[in-house]
Amino acid sequence: MTLEFAQRISRIPSYPLADGYDLGSGTAMLASNESSFAPSPAVLDAAARALSGANRYPDPSYSALRRALADRYDIPRERIALGNGSCDILLAAGEALLEPGAEVVYAWPAFSVYPHLAAASGARAIEVALDDRARHDLDAIATEVTVATRLVLVCNPNNPTSTALPLERVEAFLERVPRHVCVILDEAYVEFSLTVGDTYASVELLRRWPNLVLLRTFSKAYGLAGLRVGYALCGSESFRAAVDQVRQPFSLNAAAQAAAVEALRHQEEVERRVAHVVAGRAELIDGLRALGLWTADSDANFIWTHLPEQVVEADVTAGLAARGVLVRAGAALGRQGSLRVTVGTDEENGRFLGALGEILGASP
């Protein structure tokens, strides 16, 4: 006799995990949009000091990190949600807002976790195609909002396509969304975006739209992917209270909290690293377009490109892996025949372009 599981388990898709974690330091890890920079010594020291008290539970109210974020963005601490990566907050939002009969609306392709929300809750997912430049079509999304809609997800910059819309477009969209509908503006890559502007720009929208949530992370620009620290800046305290209610306590460990607090003190270093990524991003885009590939205008720390129609995606990713370069295949992200490539070090970027050119040159 086998175990019987809830029906929703069969509905929930598997997250597309990246390969290569056991391949060693010689592999160019360009599949998961991680930072190529290790945390600064001060951040590592802060995490180590926190570990000396690992016999105690972490602060369940995340007071030091909430205070640091509140000071940085000038919003009340009670309107800041924290979690084990931004996915933790996102999944909690689905649990708090969605149920059978409700609807969630999002663009597709977008972040791979979005389909989990409807599948886990029994809500109806409405996926809206991107426009011909791989950007969100906010007009089309707005027309899908109904009385049953509880949640709208807007990934800006969008993962996996790297594209972003200016905030005036987002603001016009918010004008069309009923105030009872929660809008999560997923800004995991906002620090890299020239289109969105600085990281304070969208925070101003919270003052006008209490139904808006800005979802962010320390995993990308701050280089703390291994510690999993996500946060949400909320237009109202009710969202923060709801997601906290449905999650387990102590979801953010002590070392992660300490590292994130320290990382916020080193904005100049973050900006320096972001500038390096932006420069590498431009070189990658130029290199891919020189190979004749359609490549999106990227506002993130990764690139989205389409392979020629006659080329088999799996052959390309296998060929890159054989040459020590790991990228993410488009088939797992919503579009067959594409690649998502993280901006790495200068050496890794050059190795990727050289390997891809070699593979495409040998293709029929």
Write the layout of secondary structure elements.
Layout (H helix, E strand, L loop, with lengths): L7 H4 L16 E2 L11 H11 L11 H11 L6 E4 L2 H12 L5 E6 L5 H8 L2 E6 L8 H6 L5 E7 L11 H10 L5 E5 L25 E6 L12 E5 L2 H10 L7 H11 L2 H24 L11 E5 L6 H10 L2 E2 L1 E2 L8 E5 L3 H17 L2
Parallel strand pairs: 1-10, 3-4, 3-5, 5-6, 6-7
Antiparallel strand pairs: 2-8, 7-8, 9-12, 11-12
Report on this structure.
It is a single chain. The chain has helices at 8-11, 41-51, 63-73, 86-97, 114-121, 138-143, 167-176, 237-246, 254-264, 267-290, 313-322, 346-362, and strands at residues 28-29, 80-83, 103-108, 124-129, 149-155, 182-186, 212-217, 230-234, 302-306, 325-326, 328-329, 338-342. The longest helix has 24 residues, at 267-290. It has twelve helices and twelve strands. The strands form three sheets. A seven-stranded mixed sheet has the order 2-8-7-6-5-3-4, sandwiched between helices. Helix content is 37%, strand content 15%. The protein starts with 7 loop residues before the first helix and ends with a helix. The protein is an alpha/beta fold. Strand 11 (328-329) and strand 12 form a beta hairpin. It folds into two domains: 8-38 and 268-362, Aspartate Aminotransferase, domain 1 (Alpha-Beta Complex), CATH 3.90.1150; 41-264, 3-Layer(aba) Sandwich (Aspartate Aminotransferase, domain 2), CATH 3.40.640. The mean pLDDT is 95.
